[in-house]
Amino acid sequence: MMELNTLQWEQLLINYPNAHLLQSSKWGKLKSIYGWEPIWIGDENGGAQILFRKIPLGLTIAYIPKGPVGKPDRQFWQQVDGICKKKKAIFLKLEPDLWDAEENCFQSSPGWIPSEPIQPRRTLVVSLEGGEQDWLNRMMQKTRYNVRLAVKKDVQVIESDDVDAFYQLMNMTGMRDGFGVHTREYYENIYKLFIPTQQCALLAATFDQKWLAALMAFRQGDRAWYFYGASSNEERNRMPAYILQFEAMRWAARYGCTTYDLWGVPDEDQEKLEASFTERKDGLWGVYRFKRGFGGRLMRSAGSWDKVYQPGLYRLFQLYRRLRRSSDAHSQ
Asked: Using alpha carbons only, how large is the chain's radius of gyration in Å?
């Protein structure tokens, strides 16, 4: 087990073509722009990209998003502990790239405690198996109708590099729907990192050359993800967001992807989701009504786990997080 450079990490990932996008060195590069330091360790059994963020007093927090890759052995975890302690990490947060039903060795491993996830725990995963008619057949009737209606109403979907236009639309959506938006530089950076390898698409649904909706989709291996999306207040009767998602699915399928992850719905079971989505608009409830129609399978991740290195500081950090969330909630 050894510490790797960027090139060595990407060479290791060749053996794991379906590793999650959040374990790619490009994702590590993106996070490094915003205060995280990526470190890669691995050997023939697998490895991980670990992100470290500095906090006051020379301390750090560590995070493995959607990893590790492969099946690292005990020596791997010992080295992870060593690096985390060297970096003065209060704790390491791990979100494995596993579904709830899959074997989760961290559930019974000593030293790991369940924790609050950073990434959405529950999502809808659309199958891209079969042809486009099969996708339409798996959709709910209303969604299928809206996809076809957008075509009839002359909505065109284009692939663009106009990050400024995308950011303006994101701002409009954030103000309307009450959610936070990244900076324009963030979207520009992520686009520039992933577009050279065609792992990203910026798609816009247009009418009369005006952007009505747009999204950024990403792919790695046989998986694709819908991370960021926005829509205008105009011409909503043309259903631009529906044809936009369909075209994103087509983009993913052209590169051999077999699934398209809609990335984030409320962490509730199917019965609760279906019983409550017409009344709830808070959090991810606002997007569930839209996402539910595309025929995706409701999936839940294996969750989040923390390994604590400095228990007293960890408790203080958790208290700080709770107080900050409470303050944010009251300020909205």
From this structure: 21
Dihedral of CA 176/123/293/205: which sign? positive
Tokens of 310: 């400095």
Burial of 248 (0-12, 13-18, 19+ CB in 10 A): buried
Contact criterion met (CB below 8 Å) for 192 and 228: no
Tell me the CB-side half-sphere exposure of residue 95, using CA atoms within 13 A: 19
Contact in structure between 178 and 184 (CB atoms under 8 Å) = no
Block means of pLDDT (10 residues each) for the chain, 332 residues, are 93 97 98 98 96 96 98 93 98 96 77 94 98 98 98 98 98 88 97 98 97 98 97 94 98 98 96 93 89 97 96 93 66 38
Dihedral sign from CA coordinates of 66, 166, 279, 275: negative
In 10 A of CB 14, how many CB atoms? Answer: 8
Q: What is the 3-state secondary structure (H, E, C) of 78-140?
A: HHHHHHHHHCCEEEEEEECCCECCCCCHHHCCCCEEEECCCCCCEEEEEECCCCHHHHHHHCC
**pLDDT score of 136:** 98
Q: What is the pLDDT of residue 262?
A: 98
> What is the Cβ-side half-sphere exposure of residue 16, based on CA atoms within 13 angstroms?
23
Q: How far apart are CA 146 and CA 134, in angstroms?
A: 16
Lookup: tokens for 323 = 């107080």
Residues of 250-276 as b/e, b for ≥16 C-beta within 10 angstroms?
ebbbeeebebbbbbbbbbbeeeebeee
* Beta-carbon count within 10 A of 290 CB: 17
* Cα–Cα distance, 211 to 236 (Å, whole number): 11
Quick check: 183 and 190 in contact, CB under 8 A? no
Nearest CA to 287 out of 301, 300, 277 is that of 277
- Cα separation, 76 vs 46, in Å, equals 9
